[in-house]
Write a structure and sequence with these properties.
Elements lengths: L9 E4 L6 E4 L9 E2 L1 H4 L19 H9 L4 E2 L3 E2 L8 E4 L8 E4 L2 E4 L2 E4 L2 E4 L2 E4 L2 E4 L2 E4 L2 E10 L2 E10 L2 E4 L2 E4 L2 E4 L2 E2 L2 H11 L4 H17 L1 E3 L4 E42 L2 E12 L2 E4 L2 E4 L2 E4 L2 E4 L8 E4 L8 E4 L2 E2 L2 H18 L19 H5 L4 H6 L17 E3 L18 E3 L6 E2 L3 H10 L8 H11 L6 E4 L6 E4 L8 E3 L1 H8 L1
Parallel strand pairs: 3-4, 5-6, 6-7, 7-9, 8-10, 9-11, 10-12, 11-13, 12-14, 13-14, 14-15, 15-16, 15-17, 16-18, 20-35, 21-22, 22-23, 22-24, 23-25, 24-26, 26-27, 27-28, 30-31
Antiparallel strand pairs: 1-2, 18-19, 28-29, 31-32, 33-34
Length: 510
């Protein structure tokens, strides 16, 4: 995770065109960075940076020397329209300030969204529309503050629902309609309660949110959120088989100690593999449509690659960076098949002697500082801890943008009905961090449609709040609250939540 910047964007200059671009790399980054269309274009050739392998030097020293000169892609925006201000987005339209988005439209300030439409401030949702402040939801419509739920419609401030509609402030329900505070209600009672809670008032929103969090804490929590799985120990796994210590994956088989998988087989110690299918991937980060990779990162449609970075449609390469449609290359130098097959075993033997073979890229070669990377979100370290482990740390003061007109969050009108379009010309000062942030027109229209108040927190603070509500990628054995049997769970034994094993949880809701 430390090899990927998923959230932070900077203004910097493209080293090829000398024009300003939006990039995952800050201006002071030591790397050469190209605008996306330039990096993917044919105006440069990564083979021009190649060099012969030096058996006097350690491999990672030579790799780092190559890494500093080969151009890198500014941001990952693929086949998308009006989506420049995003990080890692593809096949999407009219999206703003998101990260890890696929086939979505009108999605803003969200993270890990697939097939979304009109989604704001959500995380890990799929095939959902009109969603606000939702986490771990699938196939939902018109939902607000919904967590760990699927196939739901018109549900708000709810937790762990399946196949429900028209529910408010409820938890652990399956195939229920018109529920208020976990009790059946009439259509009229539901409509009145919803209108009272979602009336555009920030004060009412805060009260409803506080009640929801109390209800959530008092609810029975499912030990693991897996569905249609066989022989799986992990969390948020769907349609999976024979997976051990895996998290946030679907259609996975024979995977171990990995996070974020889609259509994968034989994956070990990886982060983000699949989209499309990947097989036989070991100790790699961000693999797409590849087979037989080890110690690679950001690799698309590769085959038989070792220690490669940002290589597209390549096969039989070792220690290469930024290559496209190449084979039999070492350190970006072209060899014949016979030369390659003779040299690679010698390099592996050399790396064995230097203690490098079998190790992932060392911390100091990561393209981003630890506090810029996805690792800081999931496994936060202090600056001292990160530096002791060999990671770099970005300590450049964050530049706070200057706005002509700033409104404090406390001075905003309570109700969305009292917000005029003039607000779009101003910045709001976050009530927690003090940073200014702007509301965009599509966002304001969404709040009006959904009867929601304006946010008072900067998007980064909202993202941190959602991250804090998710359990860590870690497993413990603890006693089931209901039957007392040992069960695997992502809830640490000392945590106060009531945690039920799968059998007891299903009895609870069906």
């Amino acid at each position: 995770m430390a090899s990927r910047n998923e959230w932070k964007l900077y203004r910097r200059t493209c080293d090829k065109t000398k024009k300003e671009i939006i990039s995952a790399y800050p201006p002071e980054s030591p790397f050469t960075v190209y605008r996306n269309d330039i990096w993917w274009g044919d105006s440069w050739d990564a083979l021009t940076y190649g060099r012969a392998f030096d058996f006097v030097k350690p491999f990672f020293v030579q790799y780092e020397e190559l890494q500093k000169v080969v151009p890198r892609e500014g941001t990952s925006v693929f086949r998308s329209e009006n989506c420049d201000y995003n990080s890692h987005i593809r096949d999407s339209k009219n999206c703003y300030m998101n990260s890890l988005i696929a086939t979505s439209e009108d999605t803003h300030f969200s993270y890990w969204i697939e097939n979304g439409k009109d989604v704001i401030d959500c995380m890990l949702t799929n095939a959902s529309t009109l969603s606000y402040e939702c986490v771990d939801c699938d196939k939902c419509y018109d939902v607000t503050s919904l967590e760990e739920s699927r196939n739901c419609n018109d549900c708000h401030f709810c937790f762990q629902l399946t196949g429900c509609d028209h529910c408010l402030l409820s938890s652990n329900l399956a195939n229920r309609s018109y529920y208020l505070r976990n009790a059946p209600c009439t259509k009229e009672e539901f409509a009145a309660a919803k209108t009272a809670l979602l009336c555009g008032s920030y004060a009412k929103w805060k009260d409803a949110r506080a009640e929801y969090l109390r209800m959530r804490e008092a609810s029975v929590h499912r030990a693991l959120h897996n569905l249609n799985c066989e022989n799986v120990i992990g969390d948020h796994m769907y349609n999976a088989k024979n997976c051990l210590r895996c998290f946030d994956g679907h259609d996975a088989e024979d995977c171990t100690q990995s996070i974020s998988m889609a259509d994968t087989k034989d994956i070990i110690s990886c982060y983000s593999a699949g989209w499309p299918r990947c097989e036989q991937i070991y100790f790699s980060a961000v693999s797409r449509g590849s087979i037989d990779l080890a110690f690679c990162r950001y690799t698309f449609f590769g085959n038989n690659l070792r220690y490669c970075d940002s290589c597209i449609s390549c096969k039989h390469c070792f220690g290469c960076i930024g290559l496209r449609h190449k084979e039999y290359c070492i350190l970006n130098t072209q060899y014949t098949k016979e030369e390659y097959e003779k040299l690679v075993p010698q390099i592996i033997d050399h790396m064995g002697k230097t203690g490098e073979w079998g190790e992932f890229f060392p911390p100091h070669t990561m393209p981003f500082s630890y506090n810029e990377s996805a690792a800081q979100d999931y496994l936060p370290l202090s600056e001292n801890e990160a530096r002791k482990m060999g990671f770099t740390w970005r300590d450049t003061p964050e530049e706070i943008p200057v706005a002509k007109r700033v409104i404090t969050a406390a001075s905003l009108p309570d109700n969305i009905d009292d917000m005029s379009d003039d607000l779009l010309q101003s910045a709001i000062q976050c009530e927690k961090s003090g940073k200014p942030f702007k509301i965009v027109k599509q966002e304001l229209d969404f709040y009006r449609r959904m009867r929601l108040p304006l946010p008072r927190l900067h998007p980064t603070e909202r993202h941190r709040s959602r991250m804090a509500r998710r359990n860590p990628y870690q497993l413990w054995i603890r006693k089931c609250t209901k039957c007392g049997q040992d069960t695997w769970t992502t809830y640490a034994p000392e945590r106060p939540e009531m945690v039920a094993c799968e059998e007891c949880y299903l009895k609870e809701i069906y």
